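Batch manifest, entry 17 of 40.
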Amino acid sequence: MGTSERIAHVVEPILEAHGHELYDIELAGAVVRVLVERPGGSVTLEGLEKLSREISDALDDDDPMPGGFELEVSSPGLERPLRQPGHFAKAVGSLVKIKTKADADGNRRLDGTITAADADGVTVETPVGPHRVAYGDIERARTVFEWGPAAKPGKKRSAS
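Output type: structure tokens
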């Protein structure tokens, strides 16, 4: 079992007990980043603080990484990284930016909307048509959040 899997094994029961789900684990040097989401709701700062304390204690007891590490517990955010097939499946209908590996066929950069995702890859509708990309050909991918128009000075936004 790799380090990420060992951390997930420790973290998932804690998250489930608090109504959250594990989105991803990122390891960057001595930083362990645990990305969490809350189905049907938003992740709060108070919730993240509580989860961080509990996860920190559990990881100290289990010690899944040799040496010290810095723990970060966070939401994946509006523009979330897409690294696993499940991430892509949840993002069907979302705008994305994908950068493919240098040896992949076609354009290295794809901007568009995910129209399908399965166990092997993802289909992105771009301005020039649909493109199918195998997960193994993706270097980086993330969702893109489109901000609405700015409110005009002196005007209140509608509550819709």
